[in-house]
Design brief:
By secondary structure, the chain is an alpha/beta fold. The chain contains 15 helices and 17 strands. Strands 2-1-3-4-5 form a 5-stranded parallel β-sheet, sandwiched between helices. The radius of gyration is 30 Å and the shape is flat.
Length: 533
């Protein structure tokens, strides 16, 4: 892009730590002039690039501190398109360069959230100040994101404190059910009907306890944003099951979930946390009981214009959470997203709840709206853009846990919990399998070393003494690279399952597992299938 040659007063103001800058400019003379001026100002110039495609490639390789991007470039990709791709993949500020600024170009550029805009010809003072402001803005944005992450984790801790009492109550109830029906079993050995009833009750209680633990792990996990395909209805159903267990019995729960809702791209843990915070606020607003209604449906982005800034074209999933509690007046509503504002006793709250929810929703390119009337209740509405790909491509096939046949193969069980190891041995033996046992990681490796030729599969606990399950697996593969391993683990997060399968495991069973699930997984792996993907 040709531009007038400006007279540049000498200006030197070298930064303490020179910023590394990538220049994207297709006019060689202009690019050379900018390079010389940047060096005179004390910056480090990494390269000058003439095309948008090259800019994307070199930015990924060099990771510059800032990019000066001419808008009009040679080739099929202009500077705005290149900047959009770079900003989507890298946390690098972009400052646009242009010889003219028509309205359409400016509007296109704004969508990419540039950190500055320089109109050619520009002076050294303009160049220097624009770069320094962009670098400062980038630094403060990074600090803001770090602070938001800390606030999210702080709010999780508050949520845990709120949940613990309810969880303790319900877990004690579950233990009472198990102990009670165990005693009944001892007294009813000659009554098949009572035996069946007792066993079913114990099974249901264990499953209920496992669900509560899994959901608590989801709340407490700290992680960076990891976007994946999330089905909102399924997430809400899981949350409603959890809160129905721990909220007061005086609160009634109502669900109106649109069955046609597609997937959204989200960090499941953070979305879970945001909605849980809203549900906890709703509970607190109904100290004497009430009704909590959760509903979902679809709206078009065009209908959100005027209500929210820059909604994208296309559908949004709308989540509405309504309570019949105390409600809030307009003055309170004006402050609900402030970080340390709270309507509760400050001794009992960090006051971070809705500010954290706002941050989570914003990081997902979504919107939040709150309506409330004193004495009537509050409605919190969330909007999330629908994931672009079809939900049909995200359906996970799952084989049922029907009764599976046993076999004659030899299985090594490596499990340190004696009662569980004994139970697994009995189940496998009854199913026709041969069984070898090891009580810790070191013994597991040694037994396999001695009998690897005759062992068809290893059922390997992840949390073992002496050597961890991961370490045992690595050792087994050095002895026999094609060893078939099924992990058993109490870690319930999907990421852990993916990690184990990525290491080469052929299956994973999650504790507490049913006999049919364990047998099904073992049979499928022995038959050459990979389970858990």
């Amino acid at each position: 892009m040709k531009t007038e040659k400006a007279q540049h007063p000498r200006f030197t103001a070298a930064p303490v730590t020179p910023a590394r800058i990538l220049i994207v400019e297709d006019e060689r003379i202009v690019a050379g002039d900018i390079r010389a001026r940047l060096r005179r100002l004390g910056y480090t110039v990494l390269e000058t690039i003439p095309t948008g495609a090259e800019a994307i490639s070199r930015a990924e390789e060099l990771h510059p501190d800032l990019i000066l991007m001419d808008i009009r470039l040679e080739g099929p990709m202009d500077g705005i398109q290149a900047a959009e791709t770079i900003r989507a993949n890298l946390d690098v500020p972009v400052v646009y360069l242009s010889a003219y600024a028509d309205r359409l170009t400016v509007e296109r550029a704004k969508v990419t959230e540039p950190f500055g805009y320089l109109l050619k010809p520009f002076e050294d003072t303009e160049l220097h100040s624009t770069i320094e402001v962009a670098l400062y803005k980038q630094k403060t944005e990074a600090q803001r994101r770090a602070l938001e992450a800390q606030l999210v984790q702080a709010q999780k801790m508050e949520s845990i404190g709120t949940l613990v009492v309810g969880l303790a109550h319900n877990l004690n109830n579950i233990l009472a059910i198990i102990l009670g029906y165990s005693s009944r079993l001892e007294r009813s050995m000659d009554d098949p009907t009572k035996i069946t009833q007792s066993v079913n009750a114990i099974n249901q209680a264990v499953r209920r306890g496992a669900t509560l633990i899994q959901q608590l792990i989801g709340v407490t996990t700290k992680s960076n944003l990891q976007f994946s395909s999330v089905h909102v209805n399924a997430l809400l159903q899981d949350l409603m099951r959890m809160v129905s267990e721990i909220f007061p019995r005086t609160i009634a729960f109502v669900q109106h979930l649109d069955p046609t809702n597609p997937y959204v791209s989200a960090d499941q843990n953070q979305l879970h946390q945001a909605i849980l915070n809203i549900l906890l606020n709703a509970r607190d607003a109904m100290p004497h009981g009430g009704r909590l209604t959760v509903s979902t449906d679809m709206v078009e982005g065009s209908s959100l214009r005027g209500q929210f800034p820059n909604p994208i074209e296309g559908p949004y999933v709308r989540i509405s959470i309504q309570d019949t509690g105390e409600g809030m007046d307009q003055e309170t509503l004006r402050h609900v997203f402030e970080p340390f504002f709270t309507t509760r006793d400050r001794a009992m709250s960090t006051g971070l709840g809705l500010s954290v929810v706002y941050g989570i929703v914003s990081s997902h390119k979504g919107f939040i709206d709150i309506g409330s009337t004193p004495g009537t209740g509050t409605t919190v509405t969330l909007f999330f853009p629908v994931e672009s790909r079809s939900a049909s491509s995200l359906v996970i096939r799952s084989e049922g846990a029907a009764k599976h046949p046993g076999g004659k193969e030899m299985i090594l069980v490596v499990e340190d919990e004696e009662m569980l190891r004994s139970l697994v041995r009995e189940v496998l033996t009854r199913a026709g399998y041969g069984v070898m046992e090891a009580v810790d990681g070191e013994e597991g490796v040694e037994v396999f070393r001695q009998h690897f030729a005759s062992i068809d599969l290893v059922l390997l606990d992840l949390g073992l003494p002496k050597l961890s399950g991961d370490e045992v697996f690595a050792a087994l593969r050095t002895i026999r690279p094609d060893v078939r391993v099924v992990f058993s683990t109490g870690y319930v997060k999907k990421e852990k399952t993916e990690e184990l399968l990525g290491l080469g495991a052929l299956g994973v069973v999650h504790k507490p597992f049913t006999v049919s699930d364990m047998l099904a997984t073992i049979r499928q792996v022995l038959d050459g299938k990979r389970v858990g993907e």
